[in-house]
Write a structure and sequence with these properties.
The complex is a heterodimer of chains A (298) and B (300). Chain A has 298 residues and is mainly alpha-helical. Chain A has 15 helices and no strands. Chain B is mostly helical and 300 residues long. Chain B folds into 2 domains: 44 residues, no CATH class; 238 residues, Orthogonal Bundle (MetI-like fold). Chain B is globular, with a radius of gyration of 24 Å. The chains are: A mainly alpha (298), B mainly alpha (300). At the A-B interface, helix 2, helix 5, helix 6, helix 7 and helix 8 of A face helix 2, helix 3, helix 5, helix 6 and helix 7 of B.
Chain lengths: 298, 300
């Protein structure tokens, strides 16, 4: 090391695999990566140990004896209050919330973005500005009026109500995403379709939709992870029987009754994190594109 | 302002009718839910609503009570401290990592995937995981003590003075990846010639970053700043999962105050007043940003 530090020639650097710079760059990244991976590692190993081993051993150590019992218990027996049917109920609820929310929010937002990009009308930009500002405002300020709205239409506490809420709060970012996407498509295409007599919906379905599939996938990734990870809306707008997985998970782990079973808790935590993790690792660059598209372009 | 995409619209009302109908959900959300909802909450923050919203005007009573409540003051203090540390550390860590990834390294995708994956997780998952890692008996403290360092102390979640740092560790773990990706995108937007020019002038790498690159990336940094700030003010799930506001009320935050008063204590007026204060704090951040972003230049 010291040799490399002192005797390296100044001026143009020769390309070397183990130059001082490389050691610093890769070394730092490696250490940081280990740190970022550690919690995932802890979750996995804890969920595969028995309770005696957890009490005796090291939180970072791999299990001496692998057991899948915590996973089974977390999925089908863990208790929240009086219900002891495990996280499976929350999982089913989350799926029931997720699928319609993702579909509805994407349909609504893509049509909004399309109208904003290609069919501006008086005031459309003003509405869009309010919509975007809404994304930055703390949700707390709109929570209660929405409770009243949902109560009025009889959807308070139901999955349908939560689907509506997700559609509303997904709208700013998704509309922005679609608006930017449609605005980047050459206007000539749009004009040509108009000349051929195509209307609002014709152009949307026959011209733009077929060439916009990647952006729909990006929007889907964004929404699936966002809605799956939601806690705030789930806890407000549903009732215990319809709690999504995150809310149920929190209730299981942070319940004060009974002996703490850390292995079951970690299995439950991992189960809840599994859906977004799988999507993240499978989608790779599209996930990055999604968050970058939402964040960087304005 | 508007660069009309269609050169001529034959019959104004009818040609745009579909677009208007299709925009109803957006208009409804923007005007009724976002704008109307916010105004409704602000209006009812001046009432003595408890279990149900009631229109009996009491002026600034709720605000007076709010600012005399110890829990609210602690929440604000916590948020301020968490906010400052989170902002500084997120920017420094994210930029350092982005700069390292930008050094034309191998396995860039692998590193980026590892650094960003926590962002895909729910705050509940993050909070519960770190709660377990920071468990005083079996977690990090227990492990180090097990190695023979018996007096080792690292129990932030049960120490009122340190609990916000326990949350900070988890928050940074989850959030730095996102900001890193955004800053990395900004770095990639910098012209390669800048680097060549710096090299010709004999300016070192670190110095080039500090003196040349960072000032050039101002818009990206502003975006990152707004994203971090908006995230900080909204912080709620992480606290609920990791500490439930404890020990005692040492890690309470404003968003949790609002939720607990609205849905737990059945004191809607207090909840409305507290959420209005949250809105005010965001507006204070947003207005300068909106001015910087949209004030100067015309948008296409």
């Amino acid at each position: 090391m010291d040799d490399l530090l002192t005797s390296g020639p100044r001026g143009t650097k020769p390309k070397r695999a183990f130059s001082r710079n490389n050691i610093i760059v890769y070394g730092t990244l490696l250490i940081v990566s280990v740190y970022y991976l550690l919690p995932l590692w802890v979750m996995v190993v804890t969920s595969l140990k028995g309770m005696p081993e957890i009490r005796m051993g090291n939180i970072f150590a791999p299990p001496l004896e692998i057991t899948f019992e915590p996973w089974v218990k977390a999925w089908s027996q863990a208790c929240t209050g009086i219900n002891c049917d495990g996280l499976s109920r929350g999982f089913v609820n989350s799926i029931k919330i997720l699928v319609p929310s993702v579909i509805l929010s994407i349909i609504v937002a893509s049509v909004n973005g399309y109208a904003l990009a290609n069919w501006k009308f008086k005031g459309s930009d003003a509405f869009f500005t309010i919509l975007i500002l809404g994304a930055f405002v703390p949700y707390q300020i709109m929570i209660y009026p929405i409770v009243i709205l949902l109560r009025e239409i009889g959807l308070m506490g139901s999955l349908g109500g939560l689907v509506l809420v997700h559609t509303i709060f997904g709208m700013p970012i998704l509309t922005l995403l679609f608006r930017n996407h449609f605005a980047a498509i050459p206007q000539e295409l749009f004009k040509a379709a108009r000349v051929d007599g195509a209307g609002f919906w014709d152009i949307y379905f026959k011209v733009l939709l077929p060439m916009s599939l990647p952006i729909f996938v990006v929007a889907m990734i964004l929404q699936v992870t966002g809605i799956w990870n939601d806690f705030l809306f789930g806890v407000i707008y549903t009732k215990p029987a319809t709690y999504p997985m995150t809310v149920q998970l929190n209730n299981i782990v942070n319940s004060v009754q009974g002996v703490k079973e850390y292995n079951v808790n970690m299995a439950a935590t991992l189960l809840t994190g599994l859906v977004p993790l799988v999507i993240y690792f499978v989608s790779g660059k599209l996930f990055v594109r999604g968050i970058a598209a939402g964040a960087v372009k304005g | 302002m508007r660069n009309a995409p269609t050169a001529k619209r034959p019959v104004k009302i009818f040609s745009n009718l579909s677009a208007k109908i299709a925009s109803i959900p957006m208009v409804f959300t923007a005007v009724v839910v976002f704008l109307g909802g916010s105004l409704w909450t602000i209006a009812y923050s001046f009432t003595s609503s408890r279990l149900l919203p009631k229109w009996n005007f009491v002026g600034l009573d709720q605000y007076e009570r709010l600012w005399n409540t110890r829990r609210w003051l602690i929440s604000i203090e916590n948020l301020a401290m968490f906010g400052v540390f989170s902002l500084v550390f997120t920017l420094v860590i994210s930029f350092t990592l982005a700069a390292l990834l930008d050094r034309k390294i191998r396995f860039e995708n692998t590193f980026r995937t590892i650094l960003l994956y926590p962002f895909a997780l729910s705050f509940i998952v993050t909070g519960l995981t770190w709660q377990w890692i920071l468990n005083p008996d079996f977690g990090l403290q227990g492990v180090v003590r097990g190695w023979g360092w018996e007096s080792f102390q690292f129990d932030p979640l049960n120490n009122p003075d340190l609990v916000m740092f326990g949350l900070l560790i988890a928050g940074l773990w989850q959030g730095t990846g996102l900001i890193m990706v955004i800053l990395l995108a900004g770095l990639r937007g910098i012209d390669e010639d800048i680097w060549k020019a710096a090299r010709v002038d004999g300016i070192g790498t670190v110095k080039t970053y500090v003196r040349v690159i960072i000032p050039m990336m101002r818009p990206v940094f502003v975006t990152a700043l707004v994203l971090i700030a908006a995230g900080i003010i909204k912080i709620y799930d992480l606290v609920v999962a990791q500490t439930s506001g404890g020990p005692g009320i040492a890690s309470e935050v404003p968003a949790k105050y609002v939720m607990d008063y609205m849905f737990g204590a059945q004191n809607l007026g207090q909840g409305f007043a507290a959420s209005t204060m949250m809105l005010v704090s965001v507006v204070v951040i947003l207005i300068p940003w909106a001015y910087l972003e949209f004030g100067g230049k015309k948008r296409g």
